[in-house]
Amino acid sequence: MGGHRPKKMKKNLFVLIIIVFATSCSSYQKAIRKTTDNVLISDFYKNQFAGLLVLDPETNDTLYAHQSKKYFTPASNTKIFTLYSSLQLLPENVPALKYAVDKNTLYIQGTGDPSFLHPHFQDSTSFHFLKKFNNIVFDLTNFEGEKLGQGWAWDDYQYYYQPEMTPLPLYGNVTTIFNTNGLDVTPDFFKDDVVRTWYKKNRELDHNTFYFSKSRKDTIEIPYRTDTLLTKKLLESALNKEVTLTKQPIEGDKQILYGQPSDSLYIRMMHESDNFIAEQLLILSSSTLSDTLSGKKTREYILKNQLADLEQPPRWVDGSGLSRYNLFSPESMVAVLNKMYQTVPKQRLFTIFPENAVSGTLKSWDYNGGYPKMYAKSGSLSNNYCLSGYLITSTGKILVFSFMNNHYQQSTSEVKKKMQQVLRQIADLY
Question: Domain boundary residue among 278, 295, 312?
């Protein structure tokens, strides 16, 4: 009898615990609001736009919100939505090709897999598979979309970060040029198209003439202009055999050739902020929905299904964030980050995201000895800088945050300092 508390006492104790917890949480929120407001309502932010949302994913408590429902240009924070879509639709290994074999002929459709002959990946699954067949027929007509994204800067066509989108990318859709003991060009197919002189452009707008000065010692990646005939020629050059093109879809049941682990693409996209991988991942994801490849189809599917509960549905026009037409709120960013936090093992999730002071685009975020620890994605365009991800506090708690800055005229380094100050204060207080 002495070992049992009366039910009323247990109930009162439970209520007391709830009150203490709520009071404690409220005091944290007040302290965070006071210190953060002191920064975000200062004169530094008077002539620009900033939005911040911080969430405790374990309790679902909002610890701080400032203009978090408003829309911002996200830049490469868009890749967070691309990552989420890929995690929802893609299997453990990349669907590299769709194919059927009829007698001695191999019929192939591309899936949008960006890793085929890519200079930064070592997977050769597709290459060795194709080498087994003498008669290969490719359908390259299953891509629905433009080569360049809506709202992309047209004059960036010559830079490594804006390759064209295709159903069967080869070599990352870039020409890699460097000097060692002479000129080295990958793919070798373009070697005679490189002009050894200094010129203000890396490539002509309408055709594949590249410029690379004899005095250059660096390595440069230049997107090449794509079309189906060029894809055929590049394949024939790589495989050392003839390839036939067709406009007829593969009939009957198709099989799927799986390549390298999908996470290897996610890590490359997030750590290096690789725009090409991001765009092709949306295309690749659409291959799991139908035979028609379309990044737009993936975006619409995810928004209609897995993200139908977003209170601020984004204007989402590409996979990389190159377009200034994209509009996302900190609240929608946090919602998607939280969905991943609740469903993806932390070790895997934090490996995919860059770690401050350690990896990728956050390697330079080594302030205060790497504290507080973050696993996050940055995004930058001129006059815009955003950072969204996971913040680990001094007590080891994991918070989800999105900090978006648009239309500032100060230097980005000054904007980052303010962001670092805010995030460190929150990590100290919670």
Answer: 295
CA distance 396 to 270: 24
Q: Closest by alpha carbon to 388, among 10, 82, 60, 105?
A: 82
Average pLDDT for 130-145: 94
CA angle 313, 319, 324 (to 5 degrees): 70
Collapsed DSSP state (helix, strand, coil) of residue 127: helix
pLDDT tens digit string along 20-63?
444 555 777 888 888 898 889 899 999 999 999 999 999 999 99
- 414, burial (CB in 10 Å: exposed 0-12, middle 13-18, buried 19+): exposed
| Residues sharing a CB contact under 8 Å with residue 113, sequence separation 6 or more, in sequence order | 94, 95, 96, 97, 126, 169, 259, 280, 284
pLDDT of 188-212, one tens digit each? Answer: 999 999 999 999 999 999 999 999 9
Which of the 8 DSSP states describes residue 355? B
Position 332 in a domain: yes
Residue at 23 is within a domain: no
pTM of the model: 0.92
Q: Which CATH number covers residue 53?
A: 3.40.710.10
Q: Mean pLDDT, the chain, as a whole number? A: 92
In a domain? residue 45: yes
Let me know whether 65 and 208 are in one domain.
no
d(Cα 97, Cα 125) in Å, to the nearest integer?
10
Do 368 and 269 share a structural domain? no
Domain limits at 165? Answer: 83-295
The per-type count for the chain, helices as H runs and strands as E runs, is: 10, 15
User: Which amino acid is it at 176?
Assistant: T
User: Do 270 and 314 belong to one domain?
Assistant: no
